[in-house]
Amino acid sequence: MGEQLYPFTKNRYFKKKRMRSADFERDQAFADHKLSFLNHWVFGTGVAFGLGVQRIDSDSLLVEPGLAVDSQGRYLIVDEPTICRIRGLEGFDNVHGEKALLWLSYREEWADPMFVADDQGQSTQYAVARERFALSLREEAPLPLPAAEGALLSEWVLFEDDELRVVQSIPRLLSAEQVCQLRLSIQSFSLEPLELELCYAPNIPGFSGLDGQVPACRRRVRVERGETVLSLPVRPVQPAQVARITVEESGFALEKRGVRFGLRQAFCQEFAVVGGDVAAALATRLKALSPQELWEDQPLGVPIAGVRIIRYDDKALLDDIVPLGLRNQASVPRLQDALGRVAGRFQTPEEETEQEGGESRAAPKEEQRQPPAPDARRMATGSLRLNAGTHMKAGSVLASDEITHGLGPGTVYVTFGVEHIYPVANSEENRTDLLLGDVSLFEQASGTYDRDFDRGVRVHPDKGTFELAVRSRADLRQSSLNLRWFAWKVGGEAQKQEPEGTLVRLTPDVIHVKPGEIIAFTPIFTGGVACPCDFHVDGRRGGVVTRDGVYTAPHREGLYQVYAQARGRPEERANAFVIVETEEQDHGPGGL
Predict the structure, then answer these.
(1) Is it true that 147-291+331-357 and 502-580 share their CATH fold?
(2) Calculated CA dihedral for residues 436, 440, 442, 443, nearest 10 degrees
(3) How many Å apart are CA 204 and CA 214, to the nearest integer?
(4) Closest CA to 219 of 241, 250, 244, 198
(5) Cα(195)–Cα(259) distance, rounded to whole angstroms?
(6) Rounded distance, CA 61 to CA 84, Å?
(7) Radius of gyration from C-alpha coordinates of the chain
(8) Do 420 and 498 meet the contact criterion of CB atoms below 8 Å apart?
(9) CA–CA distance from 261 to each of 171, 190, 193, 248, 252 (Å)?
(10) What's the pLDDT at 270?
(11) Rounded Cα distance, 327 and 324, in Å
């Protein structure tokens, strides 16, 4: 840290103590240091609000009013719009490139001069120090992570030139159970939007993408000035205590204006993999550090904007202002906020399903609702258990809940069989056979299945899910059935999926029905393919609707409302109205 704030020192008072100027200074420093120490840990370092920067002309810029807190916990308050010339800023003569950072720092203005007698006779001192601010320019350089986030995240610059900087960010602890997001921060200094073709494929043994394949992010993205964040979710598939993550030449490529660029420098680092609550493990890691390790020491002050300068001959003109990323913002409270931002990258399976079904909640300026990457998976398998109870009679039906096959929306084919587990003679091991087709054709080692089963599969192509059902042809002597299912898509290579459309209406949108009548509603999308929807009924007595949109009208006359919401995008909603009446009236097909 810059000025040593602690251990705190204060005056000890006693009767007849003679106060010297140093004693009064100590009292003032004690209060200032405690307040600065508290501010640092509560707010952190950075811009709290305001302090936007605008270009006025080729020589001047304007800083809007606002508040920032520097690394010493001091308030930097700009109380009115401030206009300054770039040539008059401190540090301008030391900036030789075309990119710079505008810094806001603490300054004191002295006022109320007075004459003081001293050993040299008489000197001028100032009785008042007014807390103000100063603006300065420094050469542009990557800003370090805040100390707390630096303890929780690993950052690495994958690519950098005059227009772009691509930074990889990975949590220092990975979860053995939850999905984690690896992030790419694309910092653009270009005056115009850039169209990029990006390929990012880190090597992470023991982890896969959400589709079960090797983790990879292949995107075409349009980036504006400032920071754009992309996410690559990865899922643990093999137990391990350490994950060695590498990014080699073949794992990164960037195409800009038709020119292909490669990796700046290869990356290789080991990350601990923890089970259980990863947020608690991150908190433990954070709390194990000392105040000196978590203290942010930045003597220049607070960066508030990037500046682009055009130089020709001996002249320099202000070209543009580049906004900085979110990391330069102060937060309240600081440590909990930093911990929450990192821990929020880990998802439970339920959250993961919601993200796959709808729009992901990305960081600011992140490219949202991009077309999903082509699904390279052609086949998937899994198992489940159906509980039959103490005794299942012949003709009884067991059905599963909806199962996600992971092959994405579209038509898939599903089959399944019964897993028969039995002990191996003269061994403590068990053997598993998979019984497909008519199981009664096979002689069972333990006589478990004497008759065949009737099997049923219901596939939901729009949601990427299916259901299984089994009906026994004889009394079942087991309390549960273990099923193994297989799902696959037909065709050659995977085709690139279209972007998800926008929900606009339901069909039918207005319909007359009889009490208890069943109607199927279909969501209509525009601008892309259909995506999963959740159906609801307005009111407790308005009838019943399934998740697939199959509605059963109530037995009371009236006007009822059914609505659908695009899963993961609750702001997209479409309504339909059902008029229940007992008398037969000809209203035409589905209309009033």
Answers:
(1) yes
(2) 140
(3) 8
(4) 198
(5) 11
(6) 6
(7) 33
(8) no
(9) 26, 17, 18, 13, 9
(10) 92
(11) 8
Question: Cα angle vertex 212, ends 210, 215, to 5°?
Answer: 70
Q: Nearest-CA neighbor of 464 among 323, 305, 308, 356? A: 356
H/E segment holding residue 284? helix 278-287
Q: What pLDDT, in 10s, does the model give residues 72-85?
A: 888 898 988 888 88
Strand 502-507 vs strand 522-526: parallel, antiparallel, or unpaired? Answer: antiparallel
Nearest to 74 by CA among 106, 29, 104: 106
**For the chain, what are the domain ranges?**
44-144+296-326, 147-291+331-357, 379-488, 502-580
pLDDT at 392: 66
> 């978590």: which residue's tokens?
294
Q: Which helix (H) or strand (E) holds 207?
A: strand 207-208
Please give the span between the terminal C-alpha atoms of the chain, in angstroms, as a whole number.
75
Closest CA to 183 of 68, 341, 32, 30: 341
pLDDT tens per residue, range 465-518: 888 888 877 777 676 777 888 888 765 444 445 577 788 888 887 888 888 888
Q: Report d(CA 569, CA 8) in Å as an integer.
A: 52
Q: Are 401 and 467 in contact (CB under 8 A)?
A: yes
Give per-residue pLDDT as tens, 201-233.
999 999 998 888 899 999 899 888 888 889 999
Domain 147-291+331-357 carries which CATH code?
2.60.40.10
Angle of the 334-343 helix axis to the 21-43 helix axis, nearest 10: 20
3-state secondary structure of 262: coil
Helices (runs of H) and strands (runs of E) counted in the chain: 6, 39
Strand 66-69 to 75-78 pairing: antiparallel
Which residue shows structure tokens 């992010």?
217
Euclidean distance between CA atoms 499 and 352, whole angstroms: 19
Q: Which CATH architecture has domain 502-580?
A: Sandwich (2.60)
Residue 427 CA to residue 303 CA, distance in Å, equals: 70
Residue 292 φ/ψ, nearest 5 degrees: -65, -35
Q: Which distant-in-sequence residues (6+ apart) come within 8 Å of 197 by Cβ? A: 219, 220, 253, 254, 255, 256
Q: Do residues 155 and 171 lie in contact, with contact meaning Cβ atoms separated by under 8 Å? A: no
Amino acid identity of residue 230, one-letter, is L
Residue type, 15: K
The answer to pTM > 0.70 is no
> CA–CA distance from 412 to each of 378, 466, 549 (Å)?
9, 9, 21
Torsion (CA) 334, 340, 343, 345 in degrees, nearest 10? -110
Phi/psi class of residue 336: alpha, beta or left (left: φ > 0; alpha: ψ in -120 to 50)? alpha
Higher-pLDDT residue of 61 and 122 is 61
Residues 390 and 410: their CA atoms lie apart, in Å, by: 38
Q: Are 95 and 137 in contact (CB under 8 A)?
A: yes
Question: With 0-12 CB in 10 A as exposed, 13-18 as middle and 19+ as buried, what is 123?
Answer: exposed
Three-state secondary-structure class, residue 79: coil
The region that residue 120 occupies, defined by phi over 0 for left and psi between -120 and 50 for alpha, beta otherwise, is alpha
Looking up tokens 């707390």, which residue turns up? 148
pLDDT for the residue 29 = 81
